[in-house]
Amino acid sequence: MKGVFTIATERRFADELARVVLAEHGGDPLALADVLILVPTRRSVRALREAFLRAADGTPTILPRMAPLGDVDDGEWEIASGEGDALTLPPAIDPAERDALLTQLVAVFKDDQGHPIAQSAAQALKLARELGRLLDELAIEGVSFSQLEGLVEGNFASHWQRTLKFLAIVGEHWPQMLAARGQIDAIERRTRAIRNQADRWRARPPQTQVIAAGSTGSQPATRDLLAAIAGLPQGAVVLPGLDRDMDEASWAALDPSHPQYGLRELLGALGVVRADVEEWPGAASASARHFLITELMRPAETSESWNRPEPASLEHVTRADCATPHQEALVVALALRSVLDTPGRTAALVTPDRALARRVAAELKRWQIDIDDSAGTPLVDTPSAALLHALIAGVDADFAPVELLALLKHPLCILGLDRAFVLAATRRLDRKCLRGLKPTPGLPSIRARVDEAKFGDPGDRAAVKMLLDRLDEATRPLVELMQGDAEPDALLAATIAAAEKISPPETLWSGDAGSALADALGRLRTAWANRPAIASGEWPGLFAAMLELETIRPAFGRHPRLSIWGPLEARLQRADLLVLGGLNEGTWPPAVETGPWINRLMRAELGLQQPERRIGLSAHDFVAALGAERVLLTRAEREGGAPTVPSRWLARLDALFGYEPGGNAPVPEYIQRGRHSFLAWAEAIDRPDTYAPWPRPEPRPPVEARPTRLSVSSIEQWRRDPYGLYARRILDLKALKALEEELGAADRGNALHDALDEFLKRHPSGVLPPDAVREFEALGEKHLAELLTAPAERAFWWPRFQRLARWFVAEENARRATGTRLLDSETEGAITVGPAARPLRIEARADRVDELERGAWEVIDYKTGRVPTKKELEALFAPQLLLEAAMAERGGFEKIDGKAKTVRLSYWQANGLDDGGKVSEIEGSDELVAEVMVLVEKMAEHFSNPNTPYMALPWPAYGPHFNDYAHLERIAEWSTAGGGEE
């Protein structure tokens, strides 16, 4: 075997390679051991090793030497050369150390106005990584920084000069810094090592066979090495899926986004044409799949020559267009799980979409399957790393309630105590002390709340105090360090020390995740040692950025027959079912970007590859996977509520077979298969066979537990939702306030009521003073002060209050001019209804009661929100003001002498809109008052019967506007069973 070969896409690359190599050298085990095979990645090495074991059928065999092209060290190249004189290269700088050094250079760079270009240490690190990517790209393509300087002229010259000044970090300062350290970049070292190897093999060809297999030669150094191997006396280059049957017009029209473009460029570097490339020994004749792939990927310039393949060419393909990413993950998980029903069969998900990979891994937990994910798990998602993030966030936020609870509720938070004790004390701290308005920052403020809170058991207060004391002791050094400028390595050390006091080291650093985190933090401490201090408040962002790229790959324990691969990892791999997921534009193929530094014209001028080359590589991975034994294609039609665009390759499949989604053309069989199998399974798996909802809640508490005193607002709740009254007054269930609760509409309403009440008590009668508006505004400043602290809140609400003040004073002056007199403001009243054996006392606090003339009163209700509709009033679902009128008629107000002969009812909309307010009088109030009294008498007697239930929402159309008990009432459940109005 010598020269250039290809293995067709539909053949199993690793198995075909192993079969032929073993057949040629299997008779001489020592000769087989001398063969060197170079493949793209380390995972490809493992796949090829397994292929040799299959080809040997279990017979003990000395395997050839195998090494990865893309990830190789000096020792492996020395073995590959067969000589001991490999050029010694300077050591490569550690990636974390490179990030730290480049961050230091970026942080000190200033723009033309003298301002730092990076606003924080985290932003400097991210810019440093972008510079690192540019460094790597220039090294791969062999472009020197000096070529950038004269690149742009004309209108862009000024901007480009500023960019060049920044890029001088890469071109001038960075090489000097590396030279002083005696190091080079890892990519530069790898590129030079590959080129040196090619030169050595040309000078001294090895006497044993060398095979380079599976590479598309996407990088110049790799192409140079492949060319050297092709020229060796016993050298062979095996290309993956070269299309030898494509017509010459199409071959000449290839662009960088085509899967064959890279192979065409590689053939040029090898100095051969397609006719010179031989089929790997044992090739079968051209198959229907090969014809399908050729036509599917035909260049647009020759698409008029499309030949529609036979439908049989898609017999191995199933397609599932899913509604959402969640459904796509479930479909993929079902497909993978179905393979396990057949012993020995394997399956893999191939996708560049990491979100899809995580969802699939989660869905497979249904069947207790822990899948092998080649990309690993982000280290930041592991429990130990999450504890460190929660610790830093808590200290940075001065232990605000949300951040404090996130730290204390973390499962690794022990603080030298029993975990159950910590959790119980944390729950008491949460319930009793942290709910409601955000406390003043710092643990002393939270301790003050603990002292003020009501605990049923004094031991609970002591437990909460002990918890806070332990936390304070563990975090005090870190708190002090984060309050000022500090060096990153000192912050790292303090963070680790605090974490080890919060969680025992044997727990914090245990397992694969803990070990990986310890290793990462060790490298980061070394890399960031002696770096400049960062400003207070920057540590959380910098720490998150430091760990952003770290991943963890468990050494064992994953499923042996199911895998998740990225497109690169899938090369040379085999599985009985390949699921190609995430087939949407922007995901597979990926979105192409030129990067933040140089545009397309600049890239062309420099000889750098255009970003469309990534699409070509992605297309090659797609067609290689499409030739597998069985294939499932999946995509989500919507992402985040927005429609997605199907991958161009799916669109080509539709066009090739004359199918237009949503049109009248027959649906192809490969799409129908997906609908009838995986999509149908996904829709059915969580759908119960029968649905029998529980009935509407109708609790019947004993009579002695039923309330005998209710406020008028409780009467409204009783009328609209008896179950809500049962939950609040009988079960004593109250909605827990939110953490760091914002002041809302109810708080504004209460504050406004207080301001109105104080103003009226200052001026109960007579003409208002000339400065009444200013006085009322001063009361607004007093009572609304806490609500108007934020500039945005003040800018929105204060003009409305000023309009209200002008309207209210004008309205008061007009009323007082007609002789209207204030009887009382915020006055208490009550009446008693119901059977004598169990009377019901109804209580109220009327916002305001005025006397229009002797015996004629007006009861006023201030409304800062909505006003009850006429329909609600007539149906007696807004009884508050009507019951207050009944109290006025019966002399029920304690501080007002006498009774009203007639009562007028009105709502004052004090919302500051339009003119500032509006008066809405209730028409026909006399009849409504009489009707509501009859109603409450009946309700009091009806609910004194122990068999009367407190039904949930008897009239759903008139349900409460704010319902704290909707989740307990299970409205969505029983309403589907036909429960309606009663």
Helix and strand topology:
Layout (H helix, E strand, L loop, with lengths): L2 E5 L5 H13 L3 H6 L1 E4 L2 H14 L9 E4 L5 H8 L13 H13 L13 H21 L15 H25 L4 H18 L6 E4 L6 H11 L4 E6 L7 H5 L8 H10 L7 E2 L8 H9 L20 E6 L2 H15 L7 E4 L3 H10 L8 E2 L3 E2 L4 H14 L4 H8 L10 H16 L8 H10 L5 H25 L5 H15 L2 H4 L2 H17 L11 H9 L3 E2 L9 E4 L11 E4 L19 H7 L5 H15 L4 E6 L1 E2 L2 E2 L4 H9 L12 H17 L23 E3 H9 L1 H9 L14 H18 L9 H12 L7 H27 L3 E13 L6 E14 L2 E8 L6 H5 L5 H10 L12 E8 L8 E4 L3 H18 L23 H4 L1 H5 L7
Helix pairs in contact: 1-3, 5-6, 5-22, 6-23, 8-9, 13-14, 13-27, 15-16, 15-20, 15-23, 17-18, 17-19, 18-19, 19-20, 20-22, 28-29, 28-34, 30-31, 31-32, 34-35
Can you walk through the features of this model?
This protein is of the alpha/beta class. It has five domains: 3-85 and 189-286, Rossmann fold (3-Layer(aba) Sandwich), CATH 3.40.50; 95-183, no CATH class; 316-375 and 558-685, P-loop containing nucleotide triphosphate hydrolases (Rossmann fold), CATH 3.40.50.300; 379-552; 742-943, Lambda Exonuclease, Chain A (Alpha-Beta Complex). Helices cover 47% and strands 11% of the residues. The strands form five sheets. A six-stranded parallel β-sheet has the order 3-2-4-5-1-6, with helices on both faces. A six-stranded parallel β-sheet has the order 7-14-13-8-12-9, with helices on both faces. Strands 17, 18, 19, 20, 21 and 22 form a six-stranded mixed β-sheet that branches. Helix 28 (712-720) packs across helix 29 (722-730).
